[in-house]
User: Fold this.
Amino acid sequence: MDWEEAANKISQVAESAVQKRRERLVGENGQIVKELDALLERYPTRDETTLLRILSTLSVGRRMAMNLKTRKVEPVEYQRINYFHAAAQLLAQRKPETLDLDVLEHLEQAAQALAEGWGEAEYFQLSQNAECLRDFGFDVTALDLNPSASPAALSEEQRATLKAELGRRRMTEIYRSVLLGVITELWVDYLTRVEALRVSIGLEAYGQRDPLVQYKVKASDMFQTLLGEIRSGVIDRAFRYLPRPVAVREVTPVTEAPSQPADPISAAESSRGGRKRHKKR
Assistant:
């Protein structure tokens, strides 16, 4: 078998495997087709957010697999499909200048959506136990709000202003935590690589190169790489934060039974019966 026959054979096998996978996923009775019908019934609205949620749900499949830790068969999620090829086709005819602006606009909208989501979650959590706005933990007078006012007495505009401030504060905490976490992890890795470079830089002398100059050049390149990794790591982690639903437990008040007044006659008899009688000698 020559190279051309081998290439044709490999191509046929690959096309057959792709066709079987396509039939299994998007065929007449495919998994994605069945799940798509169920998702369209669950979400009757057809706005952009709902469609993105449906696409994200369809990309993940579930199957039974053995858990190596518990030695039990459990359902696990796996990446069934991705949209890289579709995204590449959409971006193929775009100019880099306009693409950069669109990406920045999308990131700004995503950051605003995250702030709104965190604001909703924080307001819902704090308003469950707060009797007034003073219990929210920060000075609300800067927002032209009365600290003694009840959260239930706020208007829609005041509530939106308060949620926006809570979301902004929460996002600031998230950015600070993510930035410190990424810098800590990457800085340790950077120091490890610099130490390895310091140990091995002496070998540059065998190539008639000054080890000190090569050390400065490579260490500078590694530091620039570190800065780029920090930026990409912060952006990646910050936009993957999602507000989690807060479970509120309802506390049923315990009603105490009314205490009955003591009967003076029975009380006197009990006290008389409790006394010890001493016999006269």
